[in-house]
């Protein structure tokens, strides 16, 4: 979920910014209604040919160009702020990017609109609209923004991409991480505000919506995209199709796997973000931070992330352990086989050695808290993990507060009425691929219309008449290149460790994004 090493391009280009105030009597939060456009400005205009030249200026841009294809549309990027809510329903403000294609007839006039949800970031000022990286620390935002612009906007999609509450331009002092109700509300509010922005007089802009609404996102954004599809459907708003990528949809199962020792890469960061989020929303995850976090980390941890300080610095200062989520001492004798796990369920064997990295003597989470979750998982088991049931449903009535919060935000509680493609890679060490398999199995048991939902593993061999054969072939080449480079550098494991380090964010992500574009092209 963490976008370490996403495609990073620095555009050697200064962009003129024009600030346009929305027509409104509101100022800040003094007059509140959700989706109100507060402010917008154009941050970049770029022709298709200039975008192509810029992508060709370095190797990462050239790789993105190969995956995305040559830009065929000019793009205009607007940064805007809008009113929304926080995790406890409190009024706040968020920001987003509006990417508008332009140029020839195939890029202007009525165009499909896409909601894009970004992945996990720890940078407080994350801004997906800042693709020129005017903020040197905004590598995550610039990298993901460039990919979204190249894969979607430059190919003719109107794109609305929220930065989320708690990030750029937002006064909220925390981020409502994996809060399905809040994050979907935030996305829908960004859509409302973007429509206000597009309705403002602009003689130069001939692009408008054509009535098709797509939803996509990756990692955390995969979860947010599916939650947004659910919320739009519940509100009676038609979604043409959605294509979430590598998201933790089955949150209850994912959390139980984590507590039972399947410690994913980035787990210490994700744990701080999600517990802070749920504590703000529900107020019962702990009485004080020291009930959950070890004493070495508890002071100030509720305000630690997101931050303007780099994770390397926070790790170096001892604010957070880099990998050790749990103690290497079992919380009770009966859980020794889970500390670390000897035979983890639903996980590929290749990931088992990684799980051991999540245990140590300087761990983040108190053993007593882990024990409470383990005991509750036995008393109130999830329907998919560790032992799958026919329904594949979340735990019916967990008693432990954090497990209750995960169940509350689990996306196994609805059935889509429009097409969904769940994309990912089966070796993902950050967001386990079983999330997609569990969600699909839940829908099947809930009698979703046949063929309406599907799962794509980009890390698999193409089948006969496979519509994603090119995506799978491209992924295989990228994966092989990483492994070969590692072997040349002295790796003795065939490059597996190197592949796993970049698997989620660097090689699965762009191919799932291109797969989403291909999927949407069917409608």
Describe this structure in words.
The strands form two sheets. This protein has a ten-stranded mixed β-sheet with strand order 1-2-3-4-6-5-7-8-11-12. It has a two-stranded parallel ribbon with strand order 9-10. β5, α3 and β6 form a beta-alpha-beta unit. The protein has 523 residues and is α/β, with parallel strands linked by helices. The chain is built from 15 helices and twelve strands. α4 crosses α5, α6 runs antiparallel to α12 and α14 runs antiparallel to α15. The chain folds into two domains: 342 residues, Alpha/Beta hydrolase fold, catalytic domain (Rossmann fold, 3-Layer(aba) Sandwich), CATH 3.40.50; 159 residues, no CATH class. Helices cover 35% and strands 16% of the residues. It is globular and about 70 Å long. The two termini are 28 Å apart.
What is the strand and helix layout of this fold?
Elements: E1 18-20, E2 37-46, H1 48-55, H2 59-68, E3 74-85, E4 91-102, E5 109-117, H3 139-151, E6 158-162, H4 180-199, E7 207-218, H5 220-234, E8 241-245, H6 251-259, H7 267-282, H8 289-292, H9 311-316, E9 326-327, H10 352-355, E10 359-360, H11 367-379, H12 401-409, E11 420-424, H13 434-445, E12 453-457, H14 469-488, H15 496-520
Parallel strand pairs: 5-6, 5-7, 7-8, 8-11, 9-10, 11-12
Antiparallel strand pairs: 1-2, 2-3, 3-4, 4-6
Helix pairs in contact: 4-5, 6-12, 14-15
The CATH superfamily title of the largest domain = Alpha/Beta hydrolase fold, catalytic domain
Low-confidence stretches: 4-26
Mean pLDDT: 94
Separation of termini? Answer: 28 Å
Radius of gyration: 22 Å
The number of distinct helices, counting runs of at least 4 residues, comes to: 15
Strand order of the main beta sheet, please?
1-2-3-4-6-5-7-8-11-12
Secondary-structure element pattern, one letter each: EEHHEEEHEHEHEHHHHEHEHHEHEHH
* Number of domain modules: 2
Largest sheet: 10 strands, mixed
CATH topology of the largest domain: Rossmann fold
Could you say which structural class the secondary elements and strand pairing correspond to?
A: alpha/beta
Tell me the total number of β-strands.
12
Please identify the top-level CATH class of the largest domain: Alpha Beta
Q: Using the 3D structure, state the CATH architecture of the largest domain.
A: 3-Layer(aba) Sandwich
Shape label: globular
GO molecular function, one term: triacylglycerol lipase activity
InterPro entries: AB_hydrolase_fold, Lipase_secreted
Keywords: Hydrolase, Signal
Protein name: Alpha/beta hydrolase
């Amino acid at each position: 979920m963490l976008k370490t090493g996403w495609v990073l391009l620095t555009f050697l280009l200064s962009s003129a910014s024009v600030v346009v105030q929305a027509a409104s009597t509101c100022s800040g939060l003094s007059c509140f209604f959700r989706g109100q456009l507060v402010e917008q400005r154009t941050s970049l205009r770029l022709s298709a040919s200039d975008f192509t030249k810029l992508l060709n200026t370095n190797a990462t841009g050239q790789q993105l160009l190969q995956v995305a294809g040559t830009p065929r549309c000019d793009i205009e990027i607007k940064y805007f702020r809008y009113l929304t809510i926080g995790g406890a329903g409190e009024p706040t403000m968020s920001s987003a990017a509006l990417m508008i294609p332009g140029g020839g007839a195939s890029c202007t006039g009525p165009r499909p609109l896409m909601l894009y949800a970004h992945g996990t970031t720890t940078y407080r000022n994350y801004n997906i609209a800042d693709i020129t990286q005017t903020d040197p620390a905004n590598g995550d935002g610039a990298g993901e923004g460039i990919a979204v612009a190249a894969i979607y906007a430059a190919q003719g999609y109107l794109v609305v991409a929220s930065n989320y509450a708690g990030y750029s331009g937002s006064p909220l002092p925390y981020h409502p991480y994996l809060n399905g109700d809040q994050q979907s509300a935030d996305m829908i509010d960004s859509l409302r505000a973007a429509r206000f922005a597009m309705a403002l007089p602009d003689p130069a802009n001939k692009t408008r919506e054509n009535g098709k609404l797509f939803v996509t996102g990756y990692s955390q954004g995969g979860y947010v995209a599916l939650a947004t599809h659910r919320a739009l459907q519940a509100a009676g708003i038609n979604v043409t199709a959605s294509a979430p990528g590598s998201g933790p949809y089955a949150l209850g199962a994912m959390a139980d796997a984590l507590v039972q020792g399947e410690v994913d890469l980035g787990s210490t960061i994700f744990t701080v973000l999600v517990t802070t989020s749920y504590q703000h929303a529900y107020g019962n995850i702990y009485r004080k931070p020291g009930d959950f976090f070890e004493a070495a980390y508890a002071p100030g941890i509720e305000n630690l992330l997101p931050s303007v300080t780099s994770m390397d610095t926070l790790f170096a200062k001892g604010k957070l352990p880099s990998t050790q989520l749990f103690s290497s001492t079992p919380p009770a004798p009966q859980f020794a086989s889970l500390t670390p796990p000897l035979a983890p369920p639903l996980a590929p064997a290749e990931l088992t050695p990684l799980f051991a990295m999540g245990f140590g003597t300087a761990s983040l989470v108190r053993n007593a808290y882990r024990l409470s979750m383990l005991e509750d998982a036995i008393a109130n088991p999830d329907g998919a993990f560790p032992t799958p049931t026919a329904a594949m449903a979340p735990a019916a009535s967990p008693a432990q507060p954090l497990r209750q919060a995960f169940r509350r935000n689990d996306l196994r509680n609805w059935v889509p009425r429009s097409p969904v493609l769940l994309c990912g890679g089966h070796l993902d060490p950050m967001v386990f691929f079983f999330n997609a398999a569990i969600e699909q199995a839940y829908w099947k048991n809930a009698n979703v219309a046949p063929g309406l939902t599907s799962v794509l593993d980009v890390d698999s061999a193409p089948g006969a008449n496979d519509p994603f054969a090119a995506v799978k072939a491209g992924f295989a080449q990228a994966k092989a290149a990483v492994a070969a480079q590692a072997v040349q550098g002295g790796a003795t494991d065939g490059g597996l460790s190197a592949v796993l380090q970049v698997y989620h964010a660097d090689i699965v992500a762009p191919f799932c994004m291109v797969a989403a574009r291909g999927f949407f092209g069917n409608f």
